[in-house]
């Protein structure tokens, strides 16, 4: 951490007593735990322009989303070469890690069911009247932009296919926007919080659902566990492919 960031951070949380790199890192940032007398925080830093934009969006989401289980926003700083988000350190591990560490199938099933319940509650309590593909149209424009600058895994053909085969709209809800097992935290064997919320906005809940089941879709026991918790909608195979195998390839 450079001097400027240290100063900015200490202005907000008091003198830093300890700093450590987290063992579990994401792909788009460097994440440090900072401990001061008053607070335990996470300093998340991104360097590439694309990821700096995402970090800024994450900061906005933490600032404006009320009533959603998210880390608390403390501050956001930008330098020439990097951006930094300061937020509360939250207990627990990612669901991915919790599943790796699970001791029995029963534990895994319990964890995945709780993921379904958590997402169910989130979508259900943040449902809107909007019944459209507005969010999806915007994502396709963003996808085109990433494709043009060589920042997407998906191909031009795939993007054309996605544009030509829009799914029937469903009622839009608040969504996480990158709802994988990496981006929810588990405490006491339950999913209880979202992290990495750059994509949180009103959008198509099928995107969250598709990414949520993406890691265990081929396992019927896990899939049943998820849908014991997530009861409001079940994706068709076509919808799953559209979102997880399709749209997600551009982000
Ligand atoms: N507020 C927090 N409290 C505790 N741990 C956190 C917090 N935010 C992030 N982490 C930890 O840091 C890791 C990386 O965070 P995050 O997913 O936000 O980074 P990323 O680089 O955006 O990841 P991705 O690869 O999904 O883009 C997480 O797996 C989690 O272990
Ligand atoms: Mg992440």
Structure characteristics:
Phosphorylase Kinase, domain 1; binds adenosine-5'-triphosphate; binds magnesium ion; 43% helix; five-stranded antiparallel sheet; alpha+beta; Aminoglycoside 3'-phosphotransferase, Chain: A, domain 2; 251 residues; 22% strand; three-stranded antiparallel sheet
Overview of this structure, please?
Residues 42-231 form the Aminoglycoside phosphotransferase domain. Keywords: Transferase. One of its GO terms (molecular function) is transferase activity. This protein is α+β, with helices and mostly antiparallel strands and 251 residues long. It has two domains: 3-88, Phosphorylase Kinase, domain 1; 93-250, Aminoglycoside phosphotransferase (APH), C-terminal lobe (Aminoglycoside 3'-phosphotransferase, Chain: A, domain 2, Alpha-Beta Complex), CATH 3.90.1200.10. The protein has nine helices and eleven strands. It has a five-stranded antiparallel sheet with strand order 1-2-3-5-4. α4 (105-125) runs antiparallel to α7, α4 (105-125) runs parallel beside α8 and α5 (134-148) runs antiparallel to α6 (156-164). The protein starts with a helix and ends in a 5-residue tail after the last helix. The mean pLDDT is 96. The structure holds adenosine-5'-triphosphate and magnesium ion. The site of magnesium ion (MG) has 4 residues, from loops.
Q: Helix and strand layout, with pairings?
A:
Elements (H helix, E strand, L loop, with lengths): L2 H11 L2 E6 L8 E7 L3 E7 L2 H16 L8 E6 L4 E6 L4 E2 H7 L3 H21 L1 E5 L2 H15 L7 H9 L6 E5 L8 E4 L2 E5 L6 E3 L1 H9 L6 H10 L7 H10 L5
Antiparallel strand pairs: 1-2, 2-3, 3-5, 4-5, 6-9, 7-8, 8-11, 9-10
Helix pairs in contact: 4-7, 4-8, 5-6, 7-9
């Amino acid at each position: 951490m450079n001097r400027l960031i240290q100063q900015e951070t200490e202005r907000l949380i008091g003198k830093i007593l300890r700093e450590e790199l987290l063992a579990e890192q994401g792909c788009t940032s460097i994440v440090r735990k900072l401990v001061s007398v008053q607070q335990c925080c996470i300093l998340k830093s991104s360097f590439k322009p694309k990821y700096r934009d995402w970090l800024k969006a994450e900061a906005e989401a933490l600032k404006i989303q009320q009533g959603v289980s998210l880390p608390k926003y403390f501050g956001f700083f930008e330098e020439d070469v990097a951006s930094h988000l300061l937020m509360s350190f939250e207990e627990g591990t990612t669901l991915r890690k919790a599943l790796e560490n699970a001791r029995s199938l029963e534990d895994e099933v319990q964890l995945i069911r709780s993921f379904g319940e958590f997402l169910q509650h989130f979508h259900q309590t943040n449902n809107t009247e909007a019944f459209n593909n507005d969010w999806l149209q915007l994502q396709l424009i963003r996808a085109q932009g990433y494709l043009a600058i060589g920042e997407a895994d998906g191909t031009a053909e795939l993007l054309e296919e996605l544009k030509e085969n829009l799914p029937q709209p469903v009622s839009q809800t608040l969504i996480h926007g990158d709802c994988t097992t990496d981006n929810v935290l588990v405490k006491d064997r339950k999913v209880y919080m979202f992290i990495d919320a750059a994509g949180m906005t009103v959008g198509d809940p099928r995107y969250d659902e598709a990414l949520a089941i993406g890691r265990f879709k081929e396992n019927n026991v896990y899939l049943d566990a998820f849908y014991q918790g997530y009861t409001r909608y079940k994706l068709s195979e076509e919808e799953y492919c559209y979102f997880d195998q399709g749209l997600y390839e551009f982000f």
